[in-house]
Q: What sequence folds into this?
């Protein structure tokens, strides 16, 4: 048992350092060839009043996400305060800077501690919420490509589709098929022997809890309010991108549609499982600016740094405040 515990710790530490190394490599590639004097001059030219507006909008997004998440959890029958949902969202964000994707577990833990809701059930509400976010990101991506195919289609073909040759695509198809078949067989084994083995019974209970959380979303009394929150959240994401453009004179020629495209590309940068999107966000934004708009690497990296670090600073400040609030409430 002790050996298993040690191996688990070693695996966790190894995974953490591998992801940190990936973030470092992407950051190094992004900043390679950037002169510090040019980088400093670009930062000094920034109108930080617009950045302050972007950060305020970001805080408003955190509040909207908390309200939307609470809306999903209300049908579960437990008293969930807005402040608890707010603390959960903020603590989740700051946790992602330490361990990628662990923020989702952290915010579920906050609600479990404050309300007594089963962890698996809360996790189900997060699954539903994240599924809606991915669907929204995919829809906006498709809309941007359709509206501006001449401008953005080349980037998709060259930087994404072009990197996958036919052989790799075929291999990926076979791998995907094998994973799906294995998953179906695994589910059948669990279902068939769930009453005989305690491990399978536990997995079944966890699955039921997650499904219960997901299904709570379909029992929401205010589904239109949920959609309104979602639309407003993505509008705010666009507004954060556009205010960053207004703040940086070197990219002042970019339009509102370009801001929407950078919102989508930046969203993929945050999704990549590295600590707080560090490196991944800088790399993909600077690459998009260079490939589509012909903007110099230094300019693209400065823009990505201003955009990412302002959001990261907001997450860390709000996360720290919520951590203190949560710790004090536990003591009381």
A:
């Amino acid at each position: 048992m002790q050996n298993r515990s040690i191996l688990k710790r070693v695996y966790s530490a190894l995974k953490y350092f591998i992801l940190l190394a990936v973030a470092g490599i992407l950051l190094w590639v992004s900043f390679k060839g950037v002169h510090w004097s040019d980088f400093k001059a670009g930062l000094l030219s920034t109108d930080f009043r617009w950045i302050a507006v972007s950060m305020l909008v970001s805080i408003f997004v955190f509040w909207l996400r908390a309200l939307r998440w609470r809306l999903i959890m209300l049908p579960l029958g437990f008293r969930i305060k807005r402040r608890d949902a707010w603390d959960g969202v903020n603590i989740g964000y700051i946790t992602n800077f330490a361990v990628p994707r662990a923020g989702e577990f952290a915010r579920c833990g906050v609600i479990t501690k404050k309300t007594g809701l089963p962890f698996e059930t809360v996790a189900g509400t997060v699954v539903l919420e994240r599924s809606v976010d991915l669907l929204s990101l995919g829809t906006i991506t498709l809309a941007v490509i359709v509206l501006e195919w001449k401008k953005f289609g080349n980037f998709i073909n060259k930087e994404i589709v072009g990197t996958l040759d036919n052989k790799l695509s075929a291999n990926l198809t076979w791998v995907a098929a094998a994973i799906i078949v294995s998953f179906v067989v695994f589910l059948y084994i669990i279902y068939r022997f769930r009453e005989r083995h305690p491990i399978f019974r536990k997995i079944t209970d966890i699955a039921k809890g997650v499904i219960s959380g997901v299904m709570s979303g379909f029992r929401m009394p205010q589904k239109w309010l949920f959609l309104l929150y979602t639309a407003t959240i993505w509008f705010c994401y666009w507004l954060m991108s556009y205010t960053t453009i207004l703040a940086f004179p070197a990219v002042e020629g970019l339009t509102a549609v370009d801001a929407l495209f950078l919102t989508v590309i930046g969203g993929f940068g945050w999704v990549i499982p590295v600590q707080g999107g560090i490196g991944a966000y800088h790399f993909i934004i600077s690459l998009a600016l260079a490939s589509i708009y012909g903007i110099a690497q230094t300019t693209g990296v400065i823009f990505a740094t201003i955009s990412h670090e302002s959001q990261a600073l907001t997450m860390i400040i709000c996360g720290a405040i919520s951590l203190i609030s949560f710790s004090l409430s536990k003591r009381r």
